[in-house]
Specification:
This protein is of the alpha+beta class and 647 residues long. It is 32% helix and 31% strand. Strands 1-2-11-10-7-8 form a six-stranded antiparallel beta sheet, with helices on one face. A five-stranded antiparallel beta sheet has the order 3-4-5-6-9. The radius of gyration is 39 Å and the shape is flat. The two termini are 53 Å apart.
Amino acid sequence: MVIAHSKFSLGLPTPQGESRIWERAENGVYACILYVLSGKSVREQARETEVYISQNPPSDVQSLFELLSTITTRNDEHGILSAVMGVLIEGDSLSVAAINGGVFLIRGTKRGTLLAPKPELQVIQGTVRTDDVLVLYSGTVEKQIQLLLTKGFAFDQVQTLAQAFERTIRRMDNSEMMAAGFIYNSGETEEAVEEAAEQAAVVGPSAISKLISSLKQIPGIIFKIARFTTVGLLTLLARLLRKKPRTETFASADERPSGAKNMLRSLIHPKKTYVGAHISRKQLVLILLFLFITLCGTVAIVFLNAKNTEIVAQVDQQLAPYQQQLNTLEQQSQQEPAQAYIGIQQLIQDLTVLETTYAQPVSAHKKILETLQSAQTLAQKLLEAQEVDQLPIYDDLRKISPTFVTSAITTNATEVVALDEQQQYLIRYSLDTKTGTQIALDSSTRLRNIVGLDSSVLGLGDGIFVMTGEGEASAIDSILESSTDITNSQLIGSYQDYVYLLNPVGRVIYRYERGPTALRNRTAWIGSSSGVPFSDVTSMVVDGSIWLGTKDGRIIQLRSGKVVQFDISGLSEPPDSTVHLATKVDDPYLYVLEPAKKRVFVVEKETGEVAKQVQNTSLGSATQIIFDSVAQAPLVVSGSLLYSLPL
């Protein structure tokens, strides 16, 4: 694409992807914007960019700067790689801005001066004179352009520049995103300028030059093999196709020339001495087949290397914005570590997809892996740095009962229900009003374990009980009589119309149907053959799946009566001590308390990725973690205190 003007001209080789030039002359102000796009939905984004430029034409340096910044941001939001350059000429005043590209200035016979070499946007101002040449280029072709422009060529005419420019562009690897153009401030006629600009507007290297470029990257030994194989193959093929063997026959042994005569005949008739003269046709076929296979293998290696080179270039192109984003997140981590951590998690997901896409060749995969590992390292540093000085106290249950110490605690949709250490009374604490009521227990219940339902609570003691009513009017009714199985069990929780119990002695998880007044139809939902470490379970929650926490730090997921593989990733120190769990049905996260390491970490249920970690010395004495359905956040329990977590 070429735009020529009596004031200046610009020639552009068409790159892979899309490129556009836009120029405007008004009140003596000339603006030229070159941008290169590569990625998905390029053409649609190019059209949107052109519309945006036409609606926001730059009239001064500040507007040029803002325009290029906006173009880059819009492209980044659409996942499109871009290099953007802009030039503003007002009289003799020159302003240059570039992102992921640069601009060279050639003044007379002087060498090219690099004006904007850095990836970030910057503006450089100066003056422009007659016969000055500005060369705009995208970041991937900087070396080739620099090589051309630093040789000290005297571009006294625009045609001379165009010819040299064309030769350089034709040698470039078209697999990369590239663009380049030049602006020539000249007193020549518009026709001459336009003709010269057309010369520079080349499409890129031919298929032959691309192949030669790829071949040059193959070690020299392969060329030698290919040359030897080709020569030998052609020679033997000619020998095989001859109608008669090139040998002489004699009527008798006496007519056969002696050794000396044979040597003399060889000197006089050199054409009778040739490769393969004394090789049988069968041997020739075998040798021919061997050489043909060798040649095919060599050609395959050449084209495979060319393909790999192209893939590596594509990876470099796609990896560039991720690397730039990683650098930005590293800087952001100093001021806003929480926001940076969210960004780095998304970056890790994107890089993981890219790594899966480019498993081969190894060189391309290695580049992605290095960037991914750098992102994971930064995420780990941010995660480990999230230690809070002091946990905020949510409330103290001693305001309801001065001597209260928690032995068991749970939540439902509106309240916290806690069992005292002596198992003599319950506290019902409203999450809305932060007030509570003490409920005395009948000694016959002997409650030791409680779990929340939607609006009530189940308790396990000498049988299973349900608590209904509100405040002092609370009632505790039996819904399942005591038995040996119940005595040795722990309540896991309730989901929909089912209640789950874990019996570590019998190595089984029971499931009951929950009726209006009783539990019924017990089934062995998980048995001893499942591999569940029943005796090690320390915490249990239900959200459709059953999650079990163990005293050695394992988290086990049970779904549809089967153990599901669940691995935690993203922690430098994986859990290896007692863990307590909390979650709710619609929450995508599992909240894990590990008192021995004085921490709470948040795990994505779907992937096992750790999304956040909080460390504090107060967590070392914590005994349980519950979920506040009103605030939609976990609470940590220590004695009578409830701590909120800054998540």
